[in-house]
């Protein structure tokens, strides 16, 4: 089969690999129908994730058809159409018993990281019963693909960790795919006012279409002054950080109201300044996290009923065999106006 293989920092190739085989009795083999590229894949290619070895097939998002299952797999059957969760879940370890699946001792984020991933014609999925979600007939495949990672991440690590409540004023910092996912998910909780902050005008316009009430561009506006005006000097109840750089984390600290929540979603590569000299007295809470994907079954129902349309995040489409071109386009996101790219197998 063909797969996108990592060959060290800056190097990747669409090349021939042997088909994955069942190893454990709890495994399934899935033929990939659709997959996508994540910002995390770009981090890996930059060499930012040293736990990824050369020769690894990248990708942790996808939907597909089950080709084979091990003898212990009970719920997933050959022929099922499934969402591949970015988090592998054993279901019985110390962390899984606390629903902290992202830290599963025999799983967590391993796809396209510690084991071969989904940017391939076929992929082996460990603990298939817990790590695959059967896709009901009639659900849009592109919408379902967004449930592998970004929608659950926006909901769990942004909106739920940030304790968004009806009537809240919330600010999202970063209008990329995950920030926009958090924006979509926040509307389950009816915040009174949603503010999106980003320096990319195109992405701000998309945020407005997705339901942002106010957009702020720090490149030409003073964020703190704008938020003060909007909130009568109080600040926002929730600030959701979806970028992962010191400047955006600072914005969160500058605009948070007393009693507020700062929910960090962004992947940080360097340390940030924490202004406890201002914040110690403000009764705020800061949360961090990696998605657990325990919200995926509920999000799937919301997609099925039409309450949420995450397929709106898809801006570009290619064949899976064109993945190297797709990487170039995705790496040039601002210029190419890319949010999510769908790669479809032939
Ligand atoms: Zn991802
Ligand atoms: Zn586990």
UniProtKB/TrEMBL annotation:
CDD domains recorded: FDH_like_ADH2 (cd08286)
Tagged with keyword Hydrolase: no
Domain Alcohol dehydrogenase-like N-terminal: start-end pairs: 26-136
Domain Alcohol dehydrogenase-like C-terminal per the UniProt entry, residue ranges: 177-297
One Pfam family matching this protein: ADH_zinc_N
Record keywords: Metal-binding, Oxidoreductase, Zinc
Record InterPro entries: ADH-like_C, ADH-like_N, ADH_Zn_CS, GroES-like_sf, NAD(P)-bd_dom_sf
Chain coiled-coil ranges: none
Cofactor(s), by name: Zn(2+)
PROSITE patterns, alphabetized: ADH_ZINC
Keyword Oxidoreductase: yes
Family membership noted in the UniProt record: Belongs to the zinc-containing alcohol dehydrogenase family.
PANTHER family: NADP-DEPENDENT ISOPROPANOL DEHYDROGENASE, ZINC-TYPE ALCOHOL DEHYDROGENASE-LIKE
UniProt protein name: Zinc-dependent alcohol dehydrogenase family protein
Organism: Xenorhabdus lircayensis
């Amino acid at each position: 089969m063909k797969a996108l293989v990592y060959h060290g920092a800056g190097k990747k190739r669409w090349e021939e690999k042997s088909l994955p085989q069942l190893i454990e009795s709890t495994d399934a083999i899935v033929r990939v129908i659709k997959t996508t590229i994540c910002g995390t894949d770009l981090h890996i290619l930059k060499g930012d994730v040293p736990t990824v070895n050369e020769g690894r097939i990248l990708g942790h998002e996808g939907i597909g058809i089950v080709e084979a299952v091990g003898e212990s797999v009970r719920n997933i059957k050959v022929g099922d159409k499934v969402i591949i969760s970015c988090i592998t879940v054993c279901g019985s370890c110390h962390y899984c018993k606390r629903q902290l699946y992202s830290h599963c001792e025999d799983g967590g984020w391993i796809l396209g990281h510690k084991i071969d991933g989904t940017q391939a014609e076929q992929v082996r999925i460990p603990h298939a019963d817990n790590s695959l979600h059967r896709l009901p007939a009639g659900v849009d495949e592109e919408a379902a693909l967004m449930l592998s990672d970004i929608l659950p991440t926006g909901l769990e690590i942004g909106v739920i960790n940030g304790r968004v409540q009806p009537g809240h004023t919330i600010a999202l910092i970063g209008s990329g795919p995950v920030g926009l996912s958090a924006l979509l998910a926040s509307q389950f909780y009816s915040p009174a006012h949603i503010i999106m902050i980003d320096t990319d005008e195109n992405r701000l316009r998309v945020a407005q279409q997705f339901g942002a009430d106010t957009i702020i561009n720090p490149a030409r506006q003073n964020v703190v002054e704008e938020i003060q005006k909007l909130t009568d000097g109080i600040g926002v109840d929730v600030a959701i950080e979806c970028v992962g750089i010191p400047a955006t984390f600072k914005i969160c600290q500058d605009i948070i109201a007393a009693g507020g929540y700062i929910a960090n979603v962004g992947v940080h590569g360097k340390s940030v300044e924490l202004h406890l000299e201002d914040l110690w007295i403000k009764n705020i809470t800061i949360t961090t996290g990696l998605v657990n994907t325990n919200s995926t079954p509920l999000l799937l129902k919301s997609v099925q009923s039409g309450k949420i349309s995450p397929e709106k995040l898809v801006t570009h489409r290619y064949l899976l065999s064109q993945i190297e071109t797709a990487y170039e386009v995705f790496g040039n996101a601002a210029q190419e106006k890319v949010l999510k790219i769908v790669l479809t197998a032939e």
